[in-house]
Amino acid sequence: MDNAALKRLITEGAKAGEGLVLAQSRRDKIEYHAEQIAKYATQIGWTVEHETGSGSSGSRYVDLSRVTERDEDGEPSDWENVKIRVSDHVLPPTYKNQQGEADYEVVPDNATHDDAHGDWRDAVRWLAKKAGRPVPAAVTRADSAETNRAEKQKRERDEYNARRLAERRQAAQDYAPEKV
Q: Which of 7, 77, 82, 101 is spaced 20 to 30 Å from 153 by Cα?
């Protein structure tokens, strides 16, 4: 799926970073998360060195660097490098030996594995903290939007459960034998 098609799958009208990925394919979701990390990492002072995919799975790797020190002429003299892996599965031990472990593991949506740290927004927050920079506003808005959705879902679920309980109690009263 090309980037234009993937972007069409993001909820229309959503603010930057707030879109819900509606793609069915896990690979599309993994690619989306990797792209979001790269996009927002550059806004907080990181440089994308490589963004690659695994040859045997849908995993994506985002290698980033940032200048941590400059010499007296203002030229970079030291860098920090990090590797972020976006995947829906644990990295096999043989690949850990060949590729090295990622500094941060991201899983799309509800996929989980033992090495995971969070989603793309968690990765961006981690990068911002490492760089001593504020989290991009779009990431904060996305967090707020997700929190609001979760709170609304919980409220609706609680209201539904309360209605069902009241209906059951009423039904029990309606059908209970009268006491003489």
A: 7
